[in-house]
Design brief:
Blueprint (H helix, E strand, L loop, with lengths): L30 E4 L4 E2 L2 E3 L10 E3 L7 E8 L3 E10 L8 E5 L2 E7 L11 E9 L2 E9 L7 E9 L11 E3 L14 E12 L2 E10 L4 E8 L11 E2 L11 E8 L4 E7 L4 E6 L12 E2 L6 H6 L6 E7 L3 E7 L4 E8 L11 E5 L8 E8 L5 E9 L2 E9 L7 E4 L12 E3 L9 E5 L9 E2 L5 E6 L14 E7 L5
Parallel strand pairs: 12-29, 25-31
Antiparallel strand pairs: 1-11, 2-5, 3-4, 5-10, 6-9, 6-11, 7-8, 7-10, 12-33, 13-14, 14-15, 15-16, 17-18, 18-19, 19-20, 21-22, 22-23, 23-24, 25-26, 26-27, 27-28, 30-32, 32-33
Subcellular location: Secreted
Catalytic activity: Hydrolysis of terminal non-reducing alpha-L-arabinofuranoside residues in alpha-L-arabinosides
Main location: secreted
């Protein structure tokens, strides 16, 4: 989360197309239903890249064109849907959504996203009854439907986490520290693991000339964080130049530590066998040849930033943001990592770019078939985090605590040890229960290392005096 500019909003809304739930439960497995297996009025085409399965549904360009799915649900309730679609035209392709013959939502706008080979996902919820359900999309304009690739589904509700979270914050724990060649005004964007009895923290540091670079600190107890020296990684093979927003994890299949970070218009990684030796990190290697086209087409005046990698048993997923209301997800196989990442898809969108801004984190909840997504938002009262859950690391995502009135973390649900020192709960990371690529956290012991700042200080963003503090959940469900 280091920036240049951001603003404008890219259209993006989608909707549903298919479904079939087998044995759903409070933590039901997510399922994928390909559009070519639904009743597609039109053709199943494969002339644009990026689709799943055998192809995608391409309906005639007329009002009333439709596709229909039969959905089997074991029990009545609510399902979360994630519809992957493409619209390479210059106009929205709205559709009416009905379930069992009843209109659920009219004129859902499948907005243009730049190219027919670019794809986006819309997350939404629909009611279903026990047994068979008919889910239909009907084109509302002469353009017909957007191209529909697949529908992911998951049973909504019943998270292992409480629906209303409460936190207590420490005071500032980590401060800027300078040396003869680094005049540091801000320390921010932390990533942290606990390994061999020590916390290992990687951060962005910002100098008085607004230059970004990375730094490392380590300690055995949070009471020592303030006195731990900063080791500046621009003196290592990582090198000088813009580097920001690190994430660290141990990639067990290769028995290597990975540090990923922004490098201007791209994302790069370094590796080491010894996380405790900051001089051992390798030189940067970019994941992509440059900024993907879907990002260029949709970021407006924003910036591609805040990269986050998490892996399941088969694949690694990279989430990222653009400060323009878009959350992206790319994927590669566990065997090919760090190579082979796909073109990103838009995994979530909000027309209010401040409301789905940046700083995404995704974790697996220990002992649960559940993932947690957190995304930073900007409100008039300060920066906050919103949250969603899913039984699949790729979604679809069900809201958990995602409103101003009920956020994941904000000034409104945080108490402080002593005087409140910040109104912002900004870019950070949960303290994980392990170190590997699965990014597992305990739902019984949530702690969040975050950046905050003196609310009375006004300055350009890159000169704001960010410090690090620690949130501890006070209403554990365990």
């Amino acid at each position: 989360m280091s920036r240049l500019a951001r603003f404008t909003a890219v259209p993006l809304l989608a909707l549903v197309a298919t479904l079939a739930l087998i044995a759903p439960s409070a933590s039901a497995q997510a399922s994928r239903y390909e559009a070519e297996d639904a009743a597609c009025e039109g053709t199943v085409d494969s002339n644009y890249a990026g689709f799943s399965g055998r192809g995608f549904c391409n309906t005639p360009n007329r009002v009333g064109a439709r596709m229909e799915f039969t959905v089997h649900a074991e029990t009545a309730g609510t399902l979360t849907l994630g519809v992957k679609y493409a619209n390479g035209s210059t106009a929205a392709r709205p559709a009416d959504l009905s379930v069992n013959g009843a209109l659920v939502r009219s004129a859902v706008a499948f907005e243009p996203i730049g190219a027919w080979s670019s794809w986006a996902v819309e997350n939404l919820t629909v009611p279903v009854r026990a047994g068979a359900n008919t889910v239909r999309l009907t084109a509302a304009t002469a353009g017909g439907l957007a191209n529909i690739d697949y529908l992911d589904t998951a049973r909504a509700g019943d998270s292992a986490l409480p629906p209303n979270l409460q936190w207590n914050s420490s005071g500032p724990l980590v401060f800027p520290k300078s040396d003869a060649t680094h005049n540091i005004v801000s320390v921010k964007d932390p990533s942290v693991v606990y390994h061999n009895g020590r916390y290992h923290v990687f951060v962005s540091v910002v100098s008085a000339n607004q230059g970004y670079s990375l730094a490392y600190l380590s300690f055995t107890d949070w009471s020592q964080a303030g006195s731990a020296p900063l080791r500046f990684l621009d003196t290592t093979a990582i090198g000088t130049g813009y580097k920001a927003a690190p994430q660290v994890f141990y990639f067990a299949p290769q028995q290597r530590w990975y540090l990923t970070y922004q490098i201007g218009d791209n994302v790069a990684y370094s590796t080491t066998a010894n996380i405790a030796d900051p001089a051992s990190w390798s030189a940067p290697k970019p994941f992509y040849a440059g900024t993907p086209q879907i990002v260029l087409d949709n970021m407006g005046e924003g910036q591609w930033l805040d990269f986050w990698t998490i892996c399941d048993s088969a694949n690694c997923h990279m989430y990222s943001s653009d400060d323009n209301g878009n959350l992206y997800r790319a994927q590669t196989s566990l065997a090919r990592f760090p190579n082979g990442f796909s073109e990103p898809v838009i995994a979530m969108h909000d027309p209010n770019h401040h409301w789905l801004f940046e700083g995404a984190n995704v974790y697996r909840l220990a002992g649960e078939n559940e993932y947690l997504l957190m995304v930073e938002a900007i409100t008039a009262g300060g920066r906050i985090f919103r949250s969603w859950t899913s039984s699949n690391v790729s979604g679809p995502w069900t809201p958990l605590a995602d409103t101003k009135e009920n956020p994941f973390a904000s000034r409104s649900n945080v108490t402080f040890d002593g005087t409140a020192w910040t109104n912002d709960i900004s870019h950070g990371e949960l303290i994980r229960g392990g170190v590997d690529q699965t990014l597992t956290v305990s739902p019984c012991d949530l702690r969040f290392l975050y950046q905050g700042k003196d609310p009375d200080v006004s300055a350009p963003y890159n000169l704001l005096p960010w410090r690090l503090g620690l949130l501890t959940q006070t209403n554990s469900p365990c």
